[in-house]
Amino acid sequence: MPAKPKWYGRLAQIVTDLEALPLPWVTRGTVEFMLGVGPRRAQQIIAPCAVEQIGSSLVADRRLLILHLRALAGGEDAHYESERQRKLARVLDGLRRDWVERPKLLVAAPLAIVNQRINDLPDGVVLAHGRITIEFTTPVEALEKLLALAMAVGQDMAGFEALTAGKLGS
Q1: Does 155 have pLDDT greater than 90?
Q2: Boundaries of domain holding 74
């Protein structure tokens, strides 16, 4: 199914705005602005409601255009687009709520940890065939050593695999 125009989900507000206009007719430029479409698409939208041509531009009867847009709004495509936008809003709201309720744990990392190498891990971090041992005295020290290990593995995955798979005869 092709993508629906962005303005489908805003048709009710667009109709309200058109009803508030003081003039009984609508120009292509007004439709461009209200729907956020280009000149060609605006011309196509107002064509069924055109009552007069001024130069090369059509002028639509505002009342007919509103009826035309309401018919579009009542259509299946507009319904599915509105529902898609509602679902997206719910998902985004859930993600925002999770982000606020469960903020990420940040660990201050000294430069030495950020540039950690697999062959120079901190004391108490031991890699062996099928085993990783981390010795620590405080929870912060544990987090720092885990971070150092993660940074070292990120720098040298092959070295990590060799040490933990027993390929280096450690």
Answers
A1: no
A2: 6-100
